[in-house]
Automatic annotation (TrEMBL):
Transmembrane segments: none annotated. The keyword ATP-binding applies. This is alanine--tRNA ligase. Residues 1-119 form the Alanyl-transfer RNA synthetases family profile domain. Belongs to the class-II aminoacyl-tRNA synthetase family. Coiled coil: none annotated. Keywords: Aminoacyl-tRNA synthetase, ATP-binding, Ligase, Nucleotide-binding, Protein biosynthesis, RNA-binding, tRNA-binding. The lineage of its organism: Bacteria, Bacillati, Actinomycetota, Actinomycetes, Kitasatosporales. Its EC number is 6.1.1.7.
Length: 132
């Protein structure tokens, strides 16, 4: 499955469950504590901290992020990259951990034919696809 398909399935899954799809915010952020967006929750920080009221009870996004904490290591190893996208689903008082875990499990284990990622846990191994 290509990255674009992973993103599409993620956003579609949460949109079907009442989440508003929010576009990625620009990398430079107005947050005075950050130079760039470094995590998917950064655009939602005012809602999560109570500084502002969220315009929706649920949101989902694929946020562009820049890694800066260890920027001097970028290019020296294959583990250090500077740009990535973070998928996120957010609730602003609408649901909590139990429901978030259920959503994650459903998306991860639902068959590919049903819009999921098709990961199924089997004793001693992880199987991908639609096999039982």
């Amino acid at each position: 499955m290509r990255t674009a398909e992973v993103r599409r399935r993620f956003l579609d899954f949460f949109a079907e469950r009442g989440h508003t799809v929010v576009p990625s915010a620009p990398l430079p952020t107005p947050d005075p504590t950050l130079l760039f967006v470094n995590a998917g929750m950064v655009p939602f920080k005012p809602y999560l901290t109570g500084e502002a009221q969220a315009p929706w009870p649920r949101a989902t996004s694929v946020q562009k992020c820049v890694r800066t904490l260890d920027i001097e290591e970028v290019g020296r190893t294959t583990r250090h990259g500077s740009f990535f996208q973070m998928n996120g689903n957010f609730s602003f008082g609408d649901y909590f951990k139990e429901e978030a875990i259920a959503f994650a499990w459903e998306l991860s284990t639902a068959p590919v034919t049903d819009g999921g990622y098709g990961l199924m846990c089997c004793p001693g191994r992880l199987v991908t696809g639609d096999a039982p």
